[in-house]
Specification:
With 417 residues, the chain is an alpha+beta fold. The protein is built from 15 helices and ten strands. α3 crosses α12, α5 crosses α7 and α13 packs across α14. The longest helix has 23 residues. It binds NADPH dihydro-nicotinamide-adenine-dinucleotide phosphate (NDP). The site of NADPH dihydro-nicotinamide-adenine-dinucleotide phosphate (NDP) has 20 residues, from α6 and α7.
Length: 417
């Protein structure tokens, strides 16, 4: 018989977890997990709250960004991410650190009109009313203007097939701005409907935040890249070649970029930001000229290796659940940041550090050597090893012909006999 999920959202937490336990036939120990990770305040953040889901939080070190030393808190379940970020940052620190640039920080949202017989004419009408529409936008969220932000400009784009996008650019100050912008867009859409005598199809923020770009660069003397039997000049050459491959091959670009986002997402989560928004914008930007490419580029002249990464990274230091997330607040303190642009600079530098470490490992010893120790640790823990047993199990696992769960369990059993 299936449990009763009717009006699930109206149930108390105890009723809700009881329904889930019944449906999934949970044991008492399994049910106890709901209580173990339960946080009262988080009831209000999402619908149908059951419990919290813990992820490890750690600290990447060695970062110097725009001459400032930085500790970078990261939240990730992937064992090698923090070690790699710290490793990449250490090389760049020896070279003087990351330099970042950020020109402007505006969020963009769109109002889409459909079934237009003359979209160019409609676009011209909208442009004529730009000043009025900007006032309507500001009136929908007046506190933003009081803080020095607000609606900045309107752009129109004829999309073809009778569609027109009216893009509203807004200075959202310290927030990421999705909700604020959506309220402004809905108000503007009503006025656009009146002005153009149409019924707008939709109005919504765009995560393709091309007016919120931030760039990190580094210049590394090749001598700092030496790895084992590989000279620094050779490593630089190979990293530049790997960068070229990521520019021309989407298969490689996807993984190249996943490595960059390993770092960026981990800091975004640690600071309470919407990492899905960053992911979608970053990948769209990687395909800005029509082909999906590596987000970063690395070049060498034989003396230095130059790295560059530019991405749209619209994050906030207020808004969403940031203010009620104590750890997000703590992580802002660890980062020593107070403004959204400061956080954007850290994010982009972290992505470039992550990328450098991954590429250097890839073109020299291979990625597995560095990863394996941490992966084996996860394997040993998953197989039931206690922290006290770990050193011996890891030693034996490294020598074992197979490094899988069954082998690890056999090693643990043998150790305990
Ligand atoms: P909020 O809706 O929380 O709005 C920002 C809040 O921060 C406002 O209440 C604002 O106060 C307050 N605030 C305080 N100080 C400042 C300041 N200096 N500058 C700006 N605001 C300040 O958050 P956002 O609008 O930033 O939206 C982010 C959330 O939206 C994220 O959780 C995201 O996941 C979600 N979202 C994302 C979408 C997407 O990416 N496509 C779509 C929809 C939602 P006041 O009200 O007084 O101005």
């Amino acid at each position: 018989m299936s449990a009763d999920f009717r009006h699930f959202y109206q149930k108390t937490w105890a009723e809700r977890t009881a329904v889930v336990a019944e449906q999934a036939h949970l044991t008492a120990a399994e049910q106890a997990l709901f209580k173990k990770y339960y946080v009262t305040e988080h009831h209000e953040i999402i619908e149908n709250y059951l419990t919290d889901y813990p992820l490890p939080m750690g600290l990447a070190v060695n970062f110097v960004i725009d001459d400032q030393p930085k500790m970078v808190p990261m939240v990730t379940e992937e064992p090698s991410v923090i070690a790699a970020a710290s490793n990449g940052a250490k090389i760049v620190k020896r070279a003087g650190g990351f330099i970042t640039t950020l020109d402007r920080r505006e969020m963009v949202g769109q109002i889409v009109l459909e079934k237009l017989t003359d979209p160019e004419q409609t676009a011209a009408t909208v442009e004529q009313h730009q000043a009025t529409l900007l006032k309507v936008a500001d009136a929908a969220h007046p506190s933003l203007k009081k803080r020095g932000g607000g609606a900045r400009r309107i752009r129109t784009r004829v999309l073809g097939q009778g569609y027109l996008s009216i893009d509203l650019f807004v200075d959202v100050q310290a927030a990421m701005g999705a909700n604020m912008l959506n309220s402004m867009l809905e108000a503007v859409a009503k006025s656009v409907g009146v002005i153009t005598k149409t019924n707008p199809l939709m109005s919504i923020l765009s995560n393709y935040a091309t007016a919120s770009l931030v760039k990190a660069e580094c210049t590394i003397p090749v001598g700092l890249l030496q790895a084992g039997r590989y000279s620094g000049a050779l490593v630089a050459q190979k990293i530049a070649a790997a960068s070229t491959v990521a520019q021309i091959d989407p298969y490689r670009a996807t993984t190249h970029n996943k490595g960059i986002m390993n770092g960026i997402d981990a800091v975004a989560i640690a600071t309470g930001n919407d990492w899905r928004a960053l992911e979608s914008g970053a990948h769209a930007y990687a395909a800005k000229d029509g082909q999906y490419r590596g987000m970063s580029t690395w070049t060498t002249d034989g003396q230095v290796l130059r790295g560059s990464l530019e991405l749209p990274l619209p994050v906030g230091v207020v808004g969403g659940s940031i203010k009620i997330n104590e750890l997000a607040q703590l992580n802002q303190r660890l980062l020593g940041i107070q403004t959204a642009p400061e956080l954007e600079r850290v994010l982009v530098a972290t992505g470039l550090a992550q990328n450098l470490a991954a590429l250097r490992a890839l073109v020299t010893t291979g990625i597995q050597q560095g990863h394996m120790h941490l992966q084996l640790k996860s394997l040993a823990l998953a197989a039931g090893a206690t922290p006290a047993e770990l050193p011996v199990i890891l030693q034996r696992l490294e020598l074992a012909p197979q490094q899988d769960l069954a082998t690890t369990q056999q090693l643990i059993t043998a150790l305990r006999q």
